[in-house]
Amino acid sequence: MRSTPHRTLGAGALTVAALVALSLPVTPAAAQPAEKPAAAACTPAQAVTNGGFESGTSSWTQSSSGVITNRTGQSAHGGSSFAWLDGVGSTHTDTLTQSVTIPGGCSTATLTFWLHIDTDETTSSIAYDKLTAKIGGTTLASYSNLDENTGYVQKSFDVSSFAGQTVNLSFTGTEDSSLQTSFVLDDVALDTSGDTTPPPSDSTRTPAAPSYTVSLSSDTSGTVWNGHESVSFTNASATALGEVYLRLWDNYHGTCSAMPIKVTHVIGGTAGDLSVGCTALKITLPTPLNQGQSATVGFDLGITVPSGADRFGHDGAFSFIGNALPVLAVRDSAGWHLDPYTNNGESFYSLAADFKVTLDHPSTLLVPATGTSTDTPGSSGRTVTTATAAKVRDFAWAAGPFTKISGTSPGGVPVNIYSVSGISSSSAQSMLSTAKTAVDAHAARFGAYPYGELDAVIDNNYWFGGMEYPGFVLDLVSTTALTHEIGHQWWYGIVGDDEYNSPWLDEGFTDYATDLALGKTGSNCWSGVSWASGAEKITNSMAYWDANSSRYSTVVYGYGKCALHDLRRVLGDTAMAKLMKDYATAHWYGVSTTAEFKAAAQAATSTDLTSFWTQHRIDG
């Protein structure tokens, strides 16, 4: 995904100025427990009670009555209640505190909350009024009147260092003597997941070889889909598999009380409680699977697409449905990967799978989708689109009265451009030409494109610039962005990675591939590198970048690709080209890690690269 500083989500839109003005969270101090708790099994949990404030002041301590409220003047992010700190317009302090216990044994603990700020201050440079978020004695972030935004923005922080402790979570708002600033909080959550006691000496990724069969039918607008999904899988690990987790990623776009993705009537296992912001559903298998054994889990599925030109949302009559199908989480030597959703980048770590998806919809809607599609007549006025895809990591589709144009690249790849209303025919033709050129350029460098047709859905209202799915991308009218998203077909799609914990392996590699496809050499680009702190590294996870969001694109995309350009200058053009193609071949449909890439690069040269990795802050 290529981010742009602009988001539009219907009535609760964030303006360009709002996102530009997002505060810079303070990097958490080294407030570690004096003695680490003993390792224990992790039970994913939600540590904050009454985070939506719908039960009044229950579990919260407020400095004065009325901080937790549903009074007019502000509105809730979800439900009817919220916490309103300050907004008085005179010298004033409000506090809100809850004692939380973060379970030990969990490798991931993520605090999230939604924040809206409005102010009567007119300055663009002085922070008169401030909100501070703390956990224990550590300040997580500070916000001020300079961070005013027109809707709610979700904030996210890695608080894993407090595992096994009971600490106070607190918010403190202070106002000066004049002009109000309101700090409005809602839907506070602290989700824990992961396991610090993984299967011993077993790094095998499982459940393996997933095969998804999906049948859905839409309403007349293509924004509501209902039907059934099943997934068959095999335990590839020597460690027995007693449960699986489904990732219901798009529940991030709603609340746990109003989920856009609903799974019911589970068969083939027993559904447990939802966790990680209602994006993870544990299913206990009837009998643990030994290595090589297989099972199938099925369930009824309901999808409701929210308003907004998002990777999951609808822009008027045009729906974009990414990450909506529940997919299996991955277990490896680190345990279950149950990372939280990130809106800055991606969390979507999954193994290559086969999909057969049947989509019944009104014939007035075109439905581009991952894989190769065929249309057959349905009931009166309806069409059934059947999409099949092999060895892909996810499945996405769109629905709407698109304008479609098609062509074939010189290398033989069928390319379809689907445009929303307002995209000119000349822009669509330009994007078709770009897509045909890009898919062949990437294929020549990294290996032939294996997914049959390639669909690009074009809408200039996307706040995020572009978004990749296998055989299916969302994009603005932009040569660079579309070339980038098509590059993701190789770096994330074919050569997979843990997108949450190693985002540079897809974004940095894809930006490097984009430069090459566009004839850019990256000359001297490393000379402009300036690190924000000693903790900042190209290889940091999304937990770090969500807490330091203003640096994400600069470091992961920019410094990441510049490091690869620098590596090319060390190895030489021919050796670097061979390294990248051989590396893609070796990890085709598999998963790449930083350690594996570093080893492959070192094997390609007699030059000791130890100092290179240190200089470029590439750990792993």
From TrEMBL:
The keyword Nuclease does not apply. Residues 448-615 form the Peptidase M1 membrane alanine aminopeptidase domain. Residues 55-66, 191-211 have a biased composition (Low complexity). InterPro entries: Peptidase_M1_aminopeptidases, Peptidase_M1_dom, Peptidase_M4/M1_CTD_sf. GO terms for biological process: peptide catabolic process. GO terms for molecular function: metalloaminopeptidase activity; peptide binding; zinc ion binding. This is Peptidase.
